[in-house]
Amino acid sequence: MHNDLQFLKTRANLIRFSYIEEMEKHLLAFESRVSSKNIKVRWINSADELVGFICKSMSKNSYNKVCFDISEIYDDFFEKKNFIKLIDIDVLEKNNDTAENLVIQADFGVVENGGVVLINKLSKNCFNNLEKLFIVLNINDLVVRQNDLEILLHLRKDADNVSYFDDIKIISASPSRIIAKKFQSSDEDSYTSEKMEVFVLLYNNGITEILEDNLLRETLYCINCGRCKEVCPVYRQTGGFSPIDLIKYHCKEENKRAPKLFENTTLCGNCNEICPVLISFTQLITHQMQNLPRRSSNHEKNIDLFRVFSKRSKMNKINSRFRRYFFVKKYYGKNKKLANYLSKCKGDFFNIMQKETH
Fold it and tell me: FRET pair for 232, CA 20 to 30 Å: which of 86, 96, 143, 336?
């Protein structure tokens, strides 16, 4: 089954489509199944609300020991210096300290059985001593059936081509924590256990706004594999936006006037070729280029650039050293890292550089 990569990509696209197109129905079913397992579910709209809820749910008035196993710790947590004591995850993993609370980012949720999927988490062996577990799950990171995970996990490999199947944990019930007894006779067990308090935080973070756009909702198919980042010449030069992050950045109303869109893409199409769920990146980016506000001071320049990029064969004919120099200077003069990259390109601008895996 896994030999036909294009077949797998098409299946993965359909798996994501089947969930995203009926997200509300599936989320309600997921909430019901998780709640039936004595796990508390909360709907969270923003980062401020996420931080506020987690802090409110902690048991002590000061110095709550918290460990984070998420990609980004929100700044608001650092502002609560006397309320939270941050425990480094490496310290927790090595048993050099303990934490009462763990905030962890889930990779997937499974609607069919209410399971929460954790992949390659550093804190995987640290659950036994926790009082409270907060699982943050983006509302677009769910699949309808558990069998759907096999294809997505097969396609989601890291840069070294190591399968994520090696370390996968599915939480399908509230875990137990181990408690040492303070007083016991010699013939009694010295430890007991009790159910941990677990929260699944269904995190919106602007996802429903993207969902309302029939075209841009395709970005929600993303399974966070990072492949578009690996093959993007702009990201490799600037370290700024990956293709998927660039599109999502411009989905927000406050960012639509910003010139980030034109500064961070060459529309090379590498991301289109590599995406395991067939997201049409160049179509989405050009769609956003066309819909920039006409009041923008760079509107005419941007539309002109869009016309050049939309005719990729014409772009690849700019092989004259002087023509290329003036083209790069005109459109990328202020973006030195990208201008330097484009100036050094001797062949086609749209040279696909990918690490496809079969």
Answer: 143
